[in-house]
Amino acid sequence: MRIGLAGVGRIGGGHAETLRGIAEVEEVVVADADAGRAREVARKLGVRAAAGVDALFAAGLDGLVVATPTAAHAGLVIRAVEAGLPVFVEKPVATDLDGTIQVLTAVRGSGVPVQVGFQRRFDPGHRAAREAVRSGRLGWVHTVRSCTLDPVPPPEEYLPTSGGLFRDCSVHDFDAVRFVTGRDVVEVTAAGADRGAAVFAESGDASAASAVLTLDDGTLAVVSASRYNAAGYDVRLEVLGSRDSVVVGLDDRTPLSPAGPGTRPAGPPHTGFLERFAEAYTAELRAFTGMVAEGAASPCPPEESLEAFYVAEACETSRRERRAVAIEEVRR
Fold this sequence. Notes:
With 332 residues, this protein is an alpha/beta fold. It is built from twelve helices and 13 strands. The strands form two sheets. Strands 12-11-7-10-9-8-13 form a seven-stranded mixed sheet.
């Protein structure tokens, strides 16, 4: 099969290398707003560069991977669906709810599968936690704790257009909580702080935030995020049940040191998401190419992305207005 890739920045370049290594993919064709960067990535990886997006769509593709900046996601997904091309798109599907719903409207009834890149659904730890919940061995779940802690903030020019910490970062936790528990979020209460670089306060964003989510069966989930966790990249999820508890992401690379007696992690901490979730990124793209080859259903359709986006939207409203927000308030 021939797979096109739009966007060869940090994550797009990684996807190009992964796709090149999948046996069923005979050719990878890449394009980028910076044509020179696309040519350089193509030269380095031994793949083909298209002159631009129009040339990419004219390249006889069997499927398209979208890894461009977020503002271009919705338009590319809709164009691919209209062309009958299965699509893999990095989260989020669009920059806002209106754009996300516009994509869903285009996808529904089209028969074209669209997979959203929530890679934690393919992480072995998150999948094992999901199975532990589904099997009943934890008993009934009373608390879930999930965190995403970045070592350093992203570039300052990115932050004002990122959508904010909940939409840009914690949305992964929101999807992971829903995926692992199999439950929906009904209400949130959230707070944030803008300490650190001035750009956070200037753009109305938060550099650290936490949210308490109430799930539809009464389970409580606590989600925390930070742009300043110099100890290392830290993504963990704990599921606490009436009989047993499990944790995802607790190993020799977890950037935590005991305050009292105990053992420090033996290995160096992860430096970022590409390293921490390398196995999951490969697994999700293998799932996508399998979907293209077999015409199978999407393992993470846009409807799932919308539900996580609703939670992020509710958390941002809660942070801004300092009150509990029901998901139904933001649902459309």
